[in-house]
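Hi X.,

You mentioned you wanted examples for the new student's onboarding notes, showing what a folding record looks like when two proteins sit in one file. Here is a clean example. The first protein comes first, with its sequence line followed by its structure tokens.
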Amino acid sequence: MTLYARMSTGVWPPRLEDIEPGFWESIGAAFGDAWAGNPVPRTMDAWNLRQAERSISDDYIAPLINAVKGGTYDSFLKENPFPEPVALSDQEQKQRIKDAGLEGHVTPHASYTAEALDIILEAKREELQRKEILATTPASRMPATLAAGFGASALDPINIASAFVPVISEARALKMLGAAKGSWGRAAVRAKIGAVEGAAGAALVEPLVYAGAQKMQADYDMADSLVNIAFGAALGAAMHPAVGGAKDWLQGRRGMRRAWEAAPVDAQSEELRLGFVRDMTTAYRAARPDVEEGLVRQQAEAAAALFDARARAWAYDTGRTA
């Protein structure tokens, strides 16, 4: 980590508050801190730690490999069955933590093998280094560090999927888009929907992130969870207009009707749809009396939904009532 001292203070040696990291180190720390808190890295860290807790010592692995190479694998296992992983004692763990200079930051755990503890110590070193860089980063770089953190969150596939958790019904969303004025109005509507659905999606995956952070002994609490949910809302608010706008543009280029370009659902259209369901149910029952009642209803509902979509699109195109 490169540190720069502000020499204009006239104080030598420079004080801690006179030392700041380089610009790109601040960006890297913000990106790394946000990336480490994403669902995929948290899940992978917990998985790797779990595997390390089950690790077997090299004293057993080396002879096992030789037995495989020599073709004596079966006889070796009969004489030397797989041993249980050897966890470090509490005193051994405390000594290793002290030697690493991480007393007060990492606590021993009964399941930690040497490999598992090394993973925890390395993760904690990296976490403390990132936080030290961010703590000494000037406030003027906050927009850049926030952008870096946002970019890291947007790269996680689980975060992307969670930004589109359906909270607002499709009918309501289409009604809102149909009432919006112009592309900017539709972008604003999509941003509002995206913020709601992004926050809901982030809240759904947050238990996964929190559990992984606790497993890795990360400095992560309720405040961090709320920040993660806020990032989810921002991610949804950014992605919905981008994806929706791109889709509108492509459909316009192909001369296709947009999803929101249809007459809205009202009492009359709903009565027409339900009547179609009743008529189709009767027709299906007469044609196939051997078919299960639930399947007949599903077929009728599907046919009615297709009819309803076509009828409301026709009503939109012609300006008439279906």
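Then the second protein repeats the pattern, sequence line and then tokens:
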Amino acid sequence: NPDLINNFARQFGINYIFFDKITDTQLFQKAGWEIWDGSWEEGILKFPEENPLAELSEKPAVLVISQKSLDAYDQVFRLSSYGVIPYKDAFIVWGKGMIDDYSLEELRKFDVLLLDGYTYKSWQKANKLLSEYVRGGGSVFIDTGWQYTVPDWETENALEIIPFKKLSWKDLGKTSDFALEDIEIVKEVDVSQFGPLIYQDQPWRVSTFEKSDLKDWARVVLGVKDYPLIVVGKFGQGRVVWSGMNIFPHAKQGENIYYEELKLLANLFSWLTEGKSKVNLPVTYKREHPDKVEFIVGEDVPNGGFLLWKEAYHPDFQATLETTEKQQATTLKVYRAGPGLVAIKLPKLNKGERVVYEYHQPLFEKVFTYLSFSTLIFLLVIIVEGAFLKEKSPFLRLGQFLERRLHFLLFKLWQKPLDWWRREEE
């Protein structure tokens, strides 16, 4: 798949592929790759675009809120690589599992929230967060079609951004009788090529309700037997896409990939991010040590954005902003993006300002470092005592003192817990 090849190349910053004489290069060439400096039997394929390891961009950021144990983020990332959310159009960020683990301020750092396999602790808090986020101009894709897993798969009191007041769990039969009802958003999609509502020879049940219960701000995009499966709408200043069919795993079931469903999803995410800037800005970097990278902004960044560093995310690396105006560095938020890479959220920046991404040793490592160093000193004292020091030396007396303390700890305190055992034996 050419889209898959190029999306992975962009994600990892791959510019060249070495191939041998048995490699079929036609698919790569179809994706735009060119043979570069080819030799007699083997050669090199070159990516046709500029593809740096550090990328600063204003393009939309999609926060995937999903429970880690469900691997829902992996499903989203796989299908995004097939063109649902192309890398050149948006960053995909791995979020937490609970909506109400976020503040409204942090949610507003992202252009789209993708709620797939999500949950929350408090309905009231989650409802308020999502409602205020969308009313303020944010976009949300929410899928309730995951039985027993998401809290809204069946409810009498749906979240305000869900286009129904209530939802029920329905068996619509093993059907593929899909109907598109909004061709303005969904273009050139052939629903006859969708996968049927079947899971391992059983009906693929859905979360839905009667069309008559639809809220006035929403309209149906996809339905079956007059039951809505995908609904869209403008809510306040923002936009909402709701799905009740757990569409990500439905679009790819094992080896079966339903490309028309992927095309539908791609159209929906294009609508959610419509009008958003996708401008890339110049950034350079220098790395004089493996534990520290410095990024230098090449021009003003008036709207902020994300800096993607195409290296594996590690929680003990921290990012700070060293501005031209302030002496004290500002700590920046670091996220895990794409296939586990580093995404640093940036505020408004001026040309020449620097972002420092550096490893900070955690407390437990510091403790064990000091413990190892202390043990080394103690062993050296014992060696010096036995080999070089005279009887009256103060170092000898120190060594004897430490030896007595160690003896006390090992043979006095340590024996007390075993006294009961000895008494039982007697």
